[in-house]
Write a structure and sequence with these properties.
Elements (H helix, E strand, L loop, with lengths): L2 H6 L5 H13 L5 H35 L1 E4 L2 E5 L7 E5 L5 E4 L1 H7 L10 H4 L6 H4 L9 E3 L2 E10 L10 E8 L1 H12 L2 E8 L2 H5 L4 H19 L5 E6 L2 E7 H9 L4 H5 L12 E6 L5 H17 L4 E5 L4 E5 L11 H15 L3 E5 L6 H16 L4 E4 L8 H8 L8 E2 L1 H7 L4 E6 L10 H6 L2 E6 L13 E4 L6 H9 L10 H14 L9 H12 L4 H6 L5 H12 L1 E3 L4 E9 L2 H12 L6 E8 L2 E8 L5 H6 L4 E2 L3 E6 L4 H22 L1
Helix pairs in contact: 2-3, 13-18, 14-18, 14-19, 18-19, 18-20, 19-20, 22-23
């Protein structure tokens, strides 16, 4: 730093005068003449200091007037005449030592600014970006009623001390532009599609008068919710509405968490069916058409997650609101028949078929894969089940299947599948719809023709480029869906006993012994598998625990604590396998008053979370806060390389957020 400037920037001694003045006043208790002399001397010295301070400021301004900047062709333009507002600040203290006239005129701060720190006039402003070598502040800075973009650089030499470093900061006025930008953002269009989830069930067996009354009540609730939005609302189908509004009005509805979802649930048919809505919202698109497409995608997402919720689709991601109700069982098998016929055609047109479940496959994933293998085997097409046999929760079932001659060479590893697949291979993904959860993501990305069969509620990331999709979140298990499809694909006599038992085991697992999330079609599927030769006693043997597993389950259960509202959390630092943790979660559900159980445990280098519910609590919403997923009554999450205690805190926070959301909706 220039020696002259360094001298000008010496720290102020104003504080010393106040100390000396207080000392002089205190002397009045000892000697009044000494106190008067002290006060007089202090006042004289302060006047001298004030005169010198004004002279110092004049010298700083004079020095700055001699500083030059290179601006375009003007290589020696004075910094005081620089057209943009400029401030020079000491980096160590943030003290403003000089401002040019443009800054004073733009902010209304004149000589007073020289006695302030930069944070005094712009509290949210920090200078870390300059220290990091960035030329521009990441955002805007508001000073009074004015808004600025900020640029800057450091003024220092290699030998400069920390207190000698200066910051040269340029303020570019952008108030009008920011106001125009904000006004534009607030007026951006938002397109929403509102759908009545259970229209058919509501009007079933209702008289014409009851139908009119129900629809009038729903129309009134939706109209009351939208009446203050200055928006367009039109009914374009018997159970669908289009709703177009501006971003500013939409934010108000979003802040109230789409209260219409709760309002409509107060409407009930004579048969006891409660009305629910799903809302798909598209925003941030470049056109109305893009927002309309996004709204359609969002509505599909809401329906695939069980309905009774609002889903926002922006250009980059999804946001979810609601979804606390249980999925409504559909009582028609038309979709299963249509998908079964389409899948038969895909199998015929393919050179071979590969079937793949999720990582750490369970009995539902493996049972569904075996069911699909049965359908392909009946068509006499080459078929393989892709599974990592070293990392599966259905090890006993896998060993039983491998002992059957028809399945001796049917199970292959993901690496073997990568070698064997060709351009005309059909890949059937079962029991998951997320690309990052499949047994082999590279295999999924390598095959163009993909069919997806799943019952889990859809998450923000899902397999998009599929040739066929059967996604029914109401179903108890994927094995239930596969068994329904098999009725249209394979004669019952062609199903092997082991194949029927595999699917029945998967169905039994996901329904927790036919006690959770069961419907008429669940028992119809079980009856079909029983007719196909499944032996329930053989299935039950697969669920027996050995002595060590039972003791491990009890140790987990003894660590359980009540989180309120029927949710129980158990945490163990021991290394536990997934099956034991899942069984412990199921055991906790058997306790009177427990509606949901969550188990946090270590498995290898990772921390896993297993959550179960009796249907009262939506554990998928809790697990989504942790980056996991699942369905209404069974969900989980995996935290890579985390600590058990950290994950415990995250789970407690996720449970608390769910409970707060549930309370606000109720």
């Amino acid at each position: 730093m220039d020696k002259r400037l360094k001298k000008l920037l010496q720290p102020s001694y104003q504080a010393y005068f106040w100390v000396f003045l207080l000392f002089a006043v205190a002397c009045a208790y000892i000697s009044l003449p000494i106190a008067v002399i002290g006060i007089t001397l202090d006042g004289f010295l302060f006047l001298v200091y004030h005169y010198q301070e004004r002279a110092r400021r004049r010298d700083i301004i004079k020095y700055m007037q001699q500083m030059t900047l290179s601006v375009g062709d003007a290589k020696h333009a004075s910094i005081t005449h620089f057209p943009m507002p400029v401030v020079i600040v000491q980096a160590a203290t943030g003290q403003i030592i000089w401002t040019n006239d443009a800054f004073s005129e733009s902010t209304g701060l004149f000589d007073a600014a020289l006695s302030d720190k930069l944070t005094d006039i712009a509290p949210d402003f920090d200078t870390h970006w300059l220290v990091e070598g960035k030329p521009q502040y990441p955002g805007e800075v508001r000073i009074g009623q004015n808004v600025f973009w900020v640029f800057g650089n450091l003024l220092s030499t290699d030998e400069a001390q920390a207190d000698e470093v200066l910051m040269l900061i340029y303020f570019v006025p952008c108030t009008e532009l920011i106001e125009m930008r904000d006004a534009y953002s607030r007026s951006r269009p938002v397109v929403a599609i509102i759908s009545i989830d259970n229209y058919e069930e509501l009007i079933k067996e209702a008289t014409d008068l009851e139908k009119s009354s129900l629809m009038a009540d729903i129309n009134r609730k939706i109209g009351e919710w939208t009446q203050d939005s200055q928006a367009l609302l039109r009914k374009y189908d018997r159970d669908k509405y289009i709703f177009v509004l501006e971003e500013a009005q939409f934010e108000k509805l979003q802040q109230k968490k789409f209260s219409v979802l709760q309002d409509v649930r107060s409407i009930q048919s004579r048969a006891g069916i409660v009305a629910t809505l799903s809302i798909g919202i598209g925003k941030d698109g470049e056109s109305y058409e893009e927002n309309w497409r996004n709204a359609g995608v969002a509505l599909d997402m809401a329906l695939s997650r069980g309905g009774d919720q609002a889903v926002i689709k922006t250009r980059y991601n999804f946001d979810f609101f609601g979804g606390l109700s249980k999925e409504l069982e559909k009582r028609t098998k038309v979709k299963s028949r249509v998908v079964a016929n389409a899948l038969v055609q895909l199998i015929r047109d393919s050179s071979q078929v590969m079937i793949m479940g999720h990582k750490m496959s369970d009995m539902d994933a493996f049972g569904a894969a075996v069911g699909m293998a049965c359908a392909v085997r009946h068509r006499e097409k080459p078929v393989h089940i892709v599974i990592n046999q070293d990392k599966t929760m259905a090890h006993d079932l896998v060993e039983k299947v491998k002992a059957v001659p028809e399945y001796e060479d049917l199970l292959i590893s993901p690496d073997e599948a990568m070698v064997q697949c060709d351009f005309n291979t059909l890949l059937i993904v079962v029991d998951t719809n997320r690309p990052d959860y499949v047994e082999s993501q590279p295999l999924l990305e390598s095959i163009n023709k993909v069919a997806v069969i799943d019952h889990h509620r859809r998450a923000a990331s899902y397999i998009e480029n599929f040739a066929l999709n059967l996604h029914e979140p109401y179903a108890s298990s994927t094995c239930e869906l596969v068994s329904e499809m098999l009725q249209y694909m394979v004669p019952t006599s062609d199903i092997l006993k082991i194949e029927a038992e595999c699917m029945l085991a998967g169905l039994y697992l996901d329904t927790k012994g036919f006690s959770v999330k069961t419907g008429v079609r669940t028992f119809e599927a079980a009856a079909y598998l029983k007719r196909a030769g499944a032996d329930m006693s053989e299935v039950m043997k697969l669920f027996q625990s050995n002595f060590d597993e039972y003791i491990a389950q009890q140790r987990i259960i003894t660590n359980a604590k009540d989180c309120g509202e029927g949710i129980v959390l158990a945490v163990t630092s021991e290394n536990v396998d997934r099956i034991t943790a899942a069984k412990a979660a199921d055991c906790l559900l058997k306790i009177n008053g427990v509606n949901a159980s969550v188990v946090v445990f270590r498995c290898g280098d990772d921390v896993l979370v297993s959550a179960r519910s009796n249907g009262t609590v939506n554990v998928q919403l809790i697990m989504e806060h942790l980056g996991g997923g699942g369905n209404h009554s069974s969900a989980g999450a995996q935290i890579m390389h985390g600590s058990v205690q950290e994950v415990k805190v995250d789970v407690e926070n996720a449970i608390r957020r769910y409970q707060e959301s549930d309370d606000s909706d109720n």
